[in-house]
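Internal tracking record. Fields below are filled automatically when a chain is submitted to the structure queue. Please do not edit lines marked as system-generated. If the sequence contains nonstandard residues, flag them in the REMARKS field before resubmitting.
Queue: standard
Priority: normal
Entity type: single polypeptide chain
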Amino acid sequence: MIRAFAAAVVLVAVASQTPHVQRSVIVVFDTEKGTIEMEVDGVHAPATAANFLKYVDAGFYDGGSVNRAVRPDNTVRHDVEIQVIQFQIDPARRRDEFPPIPLERTTATGLRHVDGALSMARSGPDTATASFSIVIGDQPEMNFGGRRNPDGQGFAVFGRVTRGMDVVKALQASPTGSSGPYGTESLMPPIRILKAYRKER
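SYSTEM-GENERATED OUTPUT FOLLOWS
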């Protein structure tokens, strides 16, 4: 009886530390160029989805920006070209970012970098915080084993755009220049995020 009780306590403790999985959460980003709706996949990428939703719910993206657009005519890397736009939180909130999260590799989630995929930005493994990208066109080199990241671990996909890919493409086509943090891929000026929030069903 004591052993069974102890096992139950352990199970409850583990469950309390596991991110709450939701089958489908729709998040809306209102930008200066229009609205994008995204489906966040808490089933296949529970840790990444939960982290993203923490930033949305706490208002970190409000006042942030889309500050990077990567396309064939402006890419700084011609060895492995990709096409994405990248989102950043309000810079005034950067000191309040949550700790980095473990990398949920595409081999584990089964999700892929296809057109409209949501993907966490990162440098090394287990370094993703709040910055994320939307993929334009299929980008297999961003998956596990791809060449875009030097460590070959790829990036974590955690959802997809469900409405507003026309806005995504308009953002990608916006003017870029060489004086921003991403060189020629820097949007000039950055496109402001007005508000990010969950959409009620």
